[in-house]
Amino acid sequence: IEGALDQLSVDSKDVSLLSQRVNEVEASVGRLTAELAEKKAERMARTRQPGSSGSIHELSSANAGGYVSEVVSSVHTDNSFAPHALQNEVERLAREISDERDERMQLAQELRWRADVAHEHLCRLSSEFGATQ
């Protein structure tokens, strides 16, 4: 019985440590989400041009094509950009979209990996705890 109580104590410490780590991961995800939103807002502010028609909407991976089309139509109606400037703007936007997509995919992979590790650890602790009872 004494050995089982010792094991229970160790397991409860492990669960407590794991809980702290899960909270840290959640906090990191929250910070990363806020940072991504801030960077996105900064990029949006940089893309707004003086004298534009104001038809530029928020960028997301889902509506990136529509966003680029709106930039192109805005530039054509404004006639304040030279053709090479339009091409440069479209290329810059395409790079930003690609970079943002890559960053989101990397963060999602890291989050999935951390969640899998935490789940495996919880399952192991649960089975060990069940075996001691």
UniProtKB/TrEMBL annotation:
It comes from the Eukaryota. Residues 40-60 are annotated as: Disordered. Residues 49-60 have a biased composition (Polar residues). This is Uncharacterized protein.
